[in-house]
Amino acid sequence: MKRKWMVYASWAAALVTGLIVGIVLMVQPGTNKTTGIAQLLSGQADKSAIAMSKSYGLVLTRTYLCGVRDEEHKPVSLDRLPDVMVDYKGWEIVSADASKLILLKREHDLSPACKENGHFGINEDGMLTLFHGLPKEQEVVQAFYRINTAKMEASLSKEEVDNLKRGIRIRDLAEYNSVLSTYGEFQLSEEE
């Protein structure tokens, strides 16, 4: 219970800090003029500025183990922002200003796109690579390490080597880790 309270308190503190910094930044230096949310809070804005200021941008960024990063943009009204933030506990605050808040979540899984069409293969430089689609299409998602192909061909069956050259389909995190583990023993060291 105490930990949950601390999480909520830290979210609230970060949000208030971001809003204050945004307001301070919007005061024009050397003048007494303010813009945007500063006007809203000081009562100097007209109705159209108030309507525009009430919308706040929430940017949800996810990074996946397979190297994919995606963003989702959500407009949120300022008065609903504290309620909405409860849905994103555990997300890191990357940045906050007067117009948007960027949150980051590191997913310990493959992205939906990698699960749908991810293939491990070897690129033309001999690196173990994750492709979106077959390796011959050369749409690289993530490159890992250079493979000692001579050692691999001497240790594995021709079928296993050919499978990697054609592309090994991955559908979940277990298959992803299995391929990395299997071919990791053929990784070239810095000295090689």
TrEMBL record:
InterPro entries: BofC_C, BofC_C_sf, BOFC_N_sf
Domain Bypass of forespore C C-terminal: 109-183
The name this protein goes by in its record: BofC protein
Originating organism: Brevibacillus invocatus
